[in-house]
Amino acid sequence: MPEKRGYAKGIAKREEILARALEVFADKGYRKASLREIADSVGLSQAGLLHHFSSKEELFAEVLRKRDEVDSAGGGFGSGRTGAFDGLVGIVRHNAEVPGLVQLYATISAEAADPEHPGHEYFVSRYAQIVGGLEHYLRDEQEAGRIRAGADPRTLARLAVAVADGMQVQWMLDPSADMADAIEAYWALIRSAPGT
């Protein structure tokens, strides 16, 4: 019995670390957030903090997974006729409120292109899920005549993600760039004109 209690306590502490790290990264950004600050805020040393993760990189990837969990609880990509794109626009609008998490995401996603990176599988899975969901939505919209005929829904889905990710980088360099407006402009470009 004590082993199960210790295991549950370890899971609870890991969740506490992730929730606090999410707040610190959102508030201070990727470069200014420190492991020491996160560790202190949950009553651990840096070594104690990293005891719950295999590496600093794994902690960062898990913070992003936690961010996705929180975003999904808040509505995620939506549902229904306009759900997928409305959800994507909503998440991108929310990202403008948490620049530190956008910095973390952009940095770790680039590093995770290496198959040996602890976050690699997370990003592969995340992109597959998002592209797959958008592809399904776009295929339905195309069959209903609301998306240009002849365009490949999977390619359109990949382009939507590329616009979102690319605009995040542009926004980090120039905060006047409106990420959500770019997604909405992309959506307008691929929609069919009435009667076509």
How does this structure look, described?
The chain has 196 residues and is an all-alpha fold. It has a domain at 55-190: Tetracycline Repressor, domain 2 (Orthogonal Bundle). 72% of the residues lie in helices and 0% in strands. The chain has helices spanning 2-28, 35-41, 46-51, 56-73, 83-95, 99-111, 120-143, 153-173, 179-190. It is elongated.
Highlighted features:
196 residues; mainly alpha
The unreliable regions are: none
Q: Tell me about the largest β-sheet.
A: none
**CATH level-two architecture of the domain at 55-190:** Orthogonal Bundle
Counting DSSP E segments of at least 2 residues, the number of strands comes to 0
- Classify the helix fraction into a percent range: over 70%
Question: How do the SSEs run, as a string of H and E?
Answer: HHHHHHHHH
Précis, in short:
With about 200 residues, the protein is an all-alpha fold. Helix content is about 70%, strand content about 0%. The protein is built from 9 helices and no strands.
Could you outline the blueprint of secondary structure elements for this entry?
Layout: H1 2-28, H2 35-41, H3 46-51, H4 56-73, H5 83-95, H6 99-111, H7 120-143, H8 153-173, H9 179-190
